[in-house]
User: Fold this.
Amino acid sequence: MKRILFAILLAVAVIASPSWGKEGGDQYPNGAENWFAGAIPPPGNYYVNYFGFYCGKLKGGSGANALLNGSTPSVDATFNALRFVEISHLKLLGADYGAHVIVPVVYQSVDMNGTASKTAIGDITVNPFILGWHHPRWHAVAAVDFFLPTGYYDKNDARVSIGSNYYGFDPLVAVSLLPKNGWEASAKLMYDLKTTNQATDYHSGQEFHTDYAAG
Assistant:
């Protein structure tokens, strides 16, 4: 087991390279995973619902509101992501094998040189390869998420673009540690690779990011 986890972490480190720029928003909502991020459920079929709200204003380097043509750009977004998970009875490398699909529905309102809003399906996530290991004091997951450019996109108006208009490939590992003293520490490490946006001919840079929790 230790060798498997080391090999996965090494593979993530090997593909890591300098990151340049990024077009549009994230296909993965950072912070979505926290407690038991490294633990998949027992074999069976599951539905998980993620509901969230985000609002913010554009800030400058000093932390003050930034101005664009005399006003500060802002965004309000509400999403409901429907996640369907199947964990099979199949064992692979000593792990439970599973798959999932996530379908996000998003309402977005952006004030930037005027306000525009849009409600649409976002970029769908498909993962046909989830492996989960279990132990009384730890759990671990290795998986690969694929982000599909299914979200509404308008290259001429970013205010109403829900999707990114490019494919994403996201290998990941997650671990949850459960020591006897009642603490838990979980982390999900992800590395994003993206294809070229054919509408703008822009290729966003690679990203390493992580969700984590301890308590």
About this structure: The longest strand covers residues 74-92. The two ends are 25 Å apart (CA to CA). Residues 2-214 form one domain. Confidence is low (pLDDT under 50) at residues 1-20.
